[in-house]
Amino acid sequence: MMKYICRHCGKTYPITSMRYICECGSLLHLSYPKTPPDFGSLGNDHSLWRYRSALPPFERETIEQITMGEGGTPIIRLEENLFGKADYLMPTLSFKDRGAVMLAALMAEAGVKRCAIDSSGNAATAVAAYAARGGITTEVFVPASTSAKKLTQIEAHGGRIHAIDGSRDETARATIDYVNASGIFYASHIFNPFFWEGTKTYIYELYEQFETLPEVLIVPVGNGTLLMGVYIALQELKAWNPIDSYPLVIAFQAANCAPLAQAYEKRSLVPQSVAVSPTLAEGIATGVPARGKDILQAVHELGGRFVTVTEEEIIKAHSDLAKKGVYVEHTSAANYAAYRVAVEKDATLADKKALIPLCGAGLKSAH
Ligand SMILES: *Cc1c(COP(=O)(O)O)cnc(C)c1O
Ligand SMILES: [Zn+2]
Fold this sequence. Notes:
Bound molecules: pyridoxal-5'-phosphate, zinc ion
Largest sheet: 6 strands, mixed
Oligomer: single chain
Number of strands: 13
CATH class of the largest domain: Alpha Beta
Strand content: 15-25%
Helix content: 25-40%
CATH architecture of the largest domain: 3-Layer(aba) Sandwich
Strand order of the largest sheet: 4-5-13-10-11-12
Number of helices: 12
C-alpha cells in the first residue's frame, strides 16, 4: 500500500489525502512496495519509465497521458576524469522534469484540477508543463526577480504567475498562505516526496551508463530535491546489491546562500540561519530550506561533504563549460565550480572518476 508517513510521530496518510504536511507539523515521506529494476534487461523505453517496477505504481494510461519521454539523458566527457550528465536536455530544459512527471501523474490519478507551486523557476516550469498534460491548472509563485524567460515559458504552459515582491523564502511563505486559504493541492517539489521518486532515476541512469557509479558525485543543494533523490537511489542500490559502498557525494551551495554548508562546517544537523546575499545560482538560492534537516541527515548518512562556491568561481565555470560546448544556466555551471573547489581542497579527487549534473539550459537564464 502506498502511503505518506511522518517519521516524527509515525502517523500515516493515504496518498489521496490532500495533505502536504503532517498534523504534527513535520514534513512527510513516502512508502510503497518496490521491485528492483532488472538492470541489463530493461527493454527499449529510454525514458525514466524503464524503471517502472521501482517507481510509484501509476496506471499505464496515466503515464501515457503525462509522459514526454523525460529521462535517458546523455553523458558528456568534460575532462579526463570528469563527466557531466546533460539533464538540461529534458522536455522543459531542466532536471525538474524527473520529479514533475511524478507529481502530475499523482494529481491526474487523484482528480486534482488546480494546484499551486512555488519555485525559483525550473520546478514551476516543469510542473506547469506536465500538469497541463493532465488538464490541471497551476498557480505559480515566484520571486519577482525570476528570469523573464522562465516566466514566459511558465505562462505558455498555462501557468498563472503570482510574482512575489521578496526573496525565495518569502515566496514560499506566500504560497503556503495561499494553499491554506484556497485548499488547492500543493504540488510542491519540496514538500511532496513523490518528486524524489523521479529524481532518483538520475542515479539509476548513471548506474546503467557507467556500468557502475562514478566515484565522486557533485550535487547542487537548494531545497535538495536532487540530493534527496540521489540519497534514496543510493540506499536502494545498496540494499538491492548493485553497489556495495556509496560513491563520495559532494553537496554544494553558493557561498552567498549556504545554510546547510555552514551547518556541515559546524558538524550540525540543523540548518544554520545565515545572512543571504544575491547569487547568480538562483536555482539554489534557498536561505531557509524546509527540508534542511532531511538533507543534512542524508549527506551525513552517505558520508558526504559540503563545499561552497563564490560568484567569481561560478562565472568562470559558466564560461569554461561554454568553451567545451556546454551552455547551461549559472546554477548548473556552479556544479563545475564546486568540482574545482573540491579538487583544490582534496587533491586525491583529481584521479577519481567524477560526475556533475548539467541541470538547466543556458537559454533560460537572464545573464
Ligand atoms: C532546482 C535546481 C537546482 C537545485 O535543486 P534543489 O532541489 O533546489 O536542491 C539546481 N540546478 C538547477 C538548474 C535547478 O533547476
Ligand atoms: Zn507527524
